[in-house]
Amino acid sequence: LQERLDAIEAVVLKEALLRHRWNKTHAAKELGLSRGGLRQKLLRFGLEEK
């Protein structure tokens, strides 16, 4: 179950970033996250370089 939830979360993150042309501040605001919180999730899912 956790693997499926992680996959869904990664898709939601990527879709928000695409909607905002990879503007992390705007995507984080849409998702109700801090910019730092978004960055941590992106690192977790391999969507951002370290």
UniProtKB/TrEMBL annotation:
A UniProt-annotated Pfam family:
HTH_8
Q: Which residues form a coiled coil?
A: none
Q: Which residues form the DNA binding HTH domain?
A: 5-45
The terms under GO molecular function for this entry are: sequence-specific DNA binding
Determine the domain of life of the protein's source.
Bacteria
- InterPro entries listed in its UniProt record: Homeodomain-like_sf, HTH_Fis
Full protein name: Hydrogenase-specific response regulator
Q: Which organism is it from?
A: Cupriavidus necator (Alcaligenes eutrophus)
